[in-house]
């Protein structure tokens, strides 16, 4: 059996990877964009805005919820969704710090030029 070995990385990187994995599908980005325009909405409303089946939208909602980027509240037979602003702010902060880290310093990428292939 193969293990992901994510536990060998620090908590900061695991948190950032979890957030960005949830953002790695355009449907999830569209869902977040739609939720950002709403105070809250029902999953059926999202299906009306995003050209995917109800089942597919539900799967994407679950991924976003598992990552902590959205919240879902059950009321009767409906589930109301909204953005988890605290976690989105945390993502924003963590991503900014990460990008600052990897772009800081004076190091330039020094890759040797590619060798030309002989086409004869």
Give the arrangement of secondary structure elements:
Layout: H1 11-22, H2 26-37, E1 41-42, H3 43-49, H4 54-67, E2 70-75, E3 78-83, H5 85-103
What is the CATH topology?
Arc Repressor Mutant, subunit A
Radius of gyration over C-alpha positions, nearest whole angstrom? 20 Å
Binned strand content: 5-15%
Overall body shape: elongated
Low-confidence stretches: none
Let me know the number of strands: 3
The CATH homologous superfamily is termed Winged helix-like DNA-binding domain superfamily/Winged helix DNA-binding domain
CATH architecture: Orthogonal Bundle
Helix proportion: 40-55%
User: How many structural domains does the protein architecture include?
Assistant: 1
**What is the averaged pLDDT score?**
88
Counted by DSSP, the helix tally is 5
Q: SS-based structural class?
A: mainly alpha
The major β-sheet equals:
3 strands, antiparallel
Distance from N terminus to C terminus (CA atoms, Å) equals: 47 Å
Under the CATH scheme, which class? Mainly Alpha
């Amino acid at each position: 059996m193969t293990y992901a070995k994510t536990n060998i990385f620090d908590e900061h990187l695991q948190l950032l990877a979890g957030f960005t994995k949830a953002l790695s599908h355009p449907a999830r980005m569209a869902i977040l964009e739609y939720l950002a325009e709403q105070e809250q909405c029902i999953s059926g409303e999202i299906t009306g805005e995003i050209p995917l089946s109800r089942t597919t939208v539900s799967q994407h909602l679950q991924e976003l919820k598992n990552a902590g980027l959205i919240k879902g509240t059950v009321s009767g037979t409906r589930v109301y969704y909204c953005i988890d602003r605290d976690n989105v702010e945390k993502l924003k902060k963590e991503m900014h710090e990460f990008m600052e880290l990897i772009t800081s310093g004076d190091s330039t990428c020094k890759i040797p030029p590619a060798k030309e292939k002989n086409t004869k």
